[in-house]
Specification:
Blueprint (H helix, E strand, L loop, with lengths): L2 E4 L6 H12 L13 H14 L2 E6 L4 E6 L3 H8 L1
Length: 81
């Protein structure tokens, strides 16, 4: 499995914005009882990426990016490999 955590400072501002917007616009993303605007959701996700409570991940096999909470069990399994 070739999955890499990508430091957000390695992306241009435009690229980071595109990755975050694509992530929050996916079908099935749950924002809770109150639907947040795109900009509010963007700010929340970017803040989590900046403070380290979320990480940006790239999968070589599927050539896709994703955002995980830093304490996600999936990431813990990757670190154990």
């Amino acid at each position: 499995m070739s999955i890499h955590i990508i430091p957000i400072d390695k992306l241009s501002g435009k690229a980071l914005r595109g990755v975050i917007e694509e992530f929050i616009s996916r079908n099935g993303t749950d924002y809770g009882a109150i639907e947040a605007s795109l900009e509010t959701s963007f700010i929340q996700v970017k803040s989590k990426l900046k403070n380290g409570s979320a990480v940006l991940v790239f999968d070589d096999e599927t050539e896709t990016t994703n955002i995980f909470l830093a304490d996600d069990p999936v990431l813990k399994k990757l670190n154990a490999v």
